[in-house]
Automatic annotation (TrEMBL):
Organism of origin: Anopheles coluzzii (African malaria mosquito)
Chain segments annotated as coiled-coil in the UniProt record: none
Compartment(s) where it occurs, according to its Swiss-Prot or TrEMBL record: Cell membrane
Domain Peptidase M1 membrane alanine aminopeptidase: 299-526
Essential cofactor(s): Zn(2+)
Protein name per Swiss-Prot or TrEMBL: Aminopeptidase
Binding sites annotated in the UniProt record for Zn(2+): H373, H377, E396
Keyword list, A-Z: Aminopeptidase, Cell membrane, Disulfide bond, Glycoprotein, GPI-anchor, Hydrolase, Lipoprotein, Membrane, Metal-binding, Metalloprotease, Protease, Signal, Zinc
Annotated catalytic residues: E374
One GO-annotated biological process of the protein: peptide catabolic process
Presence of keyword Lipid metabolism: no
Principal subcellular localisation of the protein: membrane
EC code: 3.4.11.-
Uppermost EC category: hydrolase
Amino acid sequence: MVKWHPTGYRRWISSPTGSVLLLVLLALVGDYSSRGVFAASPLPDQSDVLYHAASVSSIAATRDVDSTYFLPNTTVPTHYSISLRTDIHNDVRTFSAITRIYLTVLAPTDLIVMHVQELNIASVALYRIASTGGNEIWIDSPTYMIDIVREHVTFRTAGMLPLGNYALEVAYTGSMRNYQSGYLVSRYRNEANEWRSVGTTHFQATLARRVFPCYDEPALKATFDLKITHHRAYTAIANMPLAGTEIDPNNREYLVSRFERTPLMSTYLLAFAVTDFKTLRNGQHEIVVRSNAQDDAMYALTVGSTILERLGSYLELSYYDYMPKMTSIAVPDRGTGAMENWGLVTYGEPSLLYSPAVNTYRNRKRVTTVIAHEYAHQWFGDLVSPRSWDFIWLSEGFATLYEYLATRLAEPGDEYWELFSVEVVQRAFLQDANEQIRPINWQAATQAEVSSLFDIIAYQKAGSVLNMFRNVLGESEWRQGLTQYLTDRGYDAATEENLALHLQRAVEGKDILPPTANVRDLLASWTDAPGFPVLNVYRLYRDGMMILSQERFLEQSVLPTGHVWHIPFNYAYESSATFYDLTTAGWLSSRAAKLETPVPDDEWVVFNKQQTGYYRVNYDRRNWDLLAQALMANRNAIHRANRAQLIDDAFNLARADLLDMAVVLRLMRYLRAERDYAPWYAADKVLTYLYDKVRATEHEHAFLVYVDELIEEVYATLSVDTVGQGESTLYKYLRQLITGWACRIGYKDCLERSRAALRKEFLPGQGEPSVAVHPDVRAVVYCYGLQQDSAEEFQLIFQRLMASRNQAERTDLIDALGCARNADSITSLLATIVFSAAPDTTFVYLSEERNRVFQAIYSGGRAPTLALMNVLSDPVSVQQLLAIVGEGTITNAVMNIAQRTNGAEEMARLEMMLTAMNGILPPGTLNNARDTAAARPQWFTTAEGLIVGEFLEHYNLP
């Protein structure tokens, strides 16, 4: 699953009159009301990265779980027969159903316990299934009791049930929601601009129980028969192909769609949808989409078919050997997540739809990798499910790894695998360097505990560790082990031991692991302990001798621990720069060890080639100096992935006081000659961190001179406002990063080109044709083109936003609008949020877009942030916005403003805003914001701050 972003209900304040927002709204609206409508920062961010899990659960090292949340093992399911009726075509948010659960009693009992949530049960009947066949025998109408905390329903029979097979039939009604929980409602506007409602499902992790009583634990697999009664204007789809359609005998305007029986699978993988969408087909591969977005689905139809076929070949297990078809559906206004239901994958539209006319290379990357992620789940998670949620990483970790590897199999020219280290490994490090972090294997019982497991540990860390073992074991043995694992555990569930067993068998007798080692113990050292190590390389400079040691790395320090990781290592050095040989040279399986190497004492050494190992590396000061000199002399002597690793490791080691920050800044000076994206991605995080600290301080000018030194030569090789044929994906990533910094620090050429390109599209000269800005350079051009007083262009971009039906394009346009320096434009944009909640409004925002407006503004620079602060300083405006977007959005905006406050003048302005919000936001929130801003100047009194200031003094010279 690529994690969904939940949405909530919104309320409308009926009288916005008197607010500062209303005073400037007309400046934005212009003559817009007569038009037909459909209801960031340019620097690279994480919005297009599949993280699927935006946060990590912070949990103590050990805990006990409440086992009463688990079902008893006295009965198990074998089959479900579900008949559901829906009136979603009329936007009716309720449904009725009859589910018959076929089960086996394993121990004599008078209680049948399963899961249920918010279902209104009308009747219950229990039948005995004779072992010799024949008709079912009615036994009882059991009573029932619902535990709303544990979400259990206990059916009590009149007498003890002996061992055998039974069927429990339950009739009930349920309700739909408009966020990710059970059977969901989504709305969109069709070609006639009419609102239409459609129904889809989302059951992971513990939400199938919202639609039918069930044994809602992943190991309790069963088969499913499904029938859906719906209006004839709509179509039903499900995991399996349609088996037949009949007219509803009770109402000829309705049809009954009946589907083929599923294979054995977990309850959370059942899925269906009832829509008026169109189906596009490429053999057995289908895309279901609203009719006014069919063109945008063509890319997914083609690339998805290729990914599914290539993954099957790679694993030597064709998908179609297990399932007869694959359907992917694009769900309107459902955020950017996706869910891997077996045979029916659901996506938020930006993760499945791509139009080269309006969408960027980043959107294309999102679509490609999300499809790969969900299709990898068809084997890892669907065919073989985790035995319990404790092992969810066996599903999400593999999917994270193969969302990148599968694109290399299907679309190698896109170079997405090159982003794995920076987007997955380095991102996992940031969250995993927390003393309260959980290990990969982690027990969960309650619904909240289970939900918290879908985090960066299950996705990015697990994917990184799996990739490390892929390299350690070798690609051939790795694939062999996976094929046997999937074959052996197919239609069943698995634990880490099952995986380790088959990987061990694949390497037996091949001299890949140390003689006394086994995969289970090696893997457990990474999955059973929290955090990750730093490998310290201390060179003796005496005939190649080195001392290796390990300790747990934390974001602010290291932590002594009794745990020892089995760390696979390899290394390259100046006269043997074998960065493409990823063979493991040895293992550090103790706290420290002395290593004899052939490395000459006057040459640099780099450990962890291409950063395939999940650990950071620190060196003695002399080796860091040798590396800095080598990069300045010839950056290509060291692999690009390791150049990115060196910057990322050095910066985070310095943040943990394990390295001098001046080493990082000197190391990065080689970037003036860097042309690869990965090192610049790592450097961007350093520069963004430092700019946040020094902006609006005495060190800002020197920092800008330093950045200018780094980017000047690279900027000269890039085009701000045009896209050439044959440009690679990584070139486009690099261009956006570099030109974003160039405009940000005030390059006249960058700002003028952005401004001119923006005007050529929206306000061309007399008799000149409009020239659209290419989507791949739009982020920088639009953002910095709006840095001048450009109210007219701002209004035209807003009108384009309101008219667009492409959700990814809408997000990009919101980010651009948030960059405007014109305060009235920003205030007007916020006013549209208020008016978008009015009945029959012409201002139509999707469910998460109002929140995105706030994010775009406080990320867009100081000028738009000040305009936002002006609005938040008006109590009437705050109360209006609060009622629509909720306290969480306003609180998030306030804290982000506080986190961006530097200097006495900005602090005074912040205090004015917070004072005006007294009685609106809780006192604790306001005080937290004050404390956050007040603490920021303290950085300059730390060793890190003093070292950075001292380094930048060199750049303050006249």
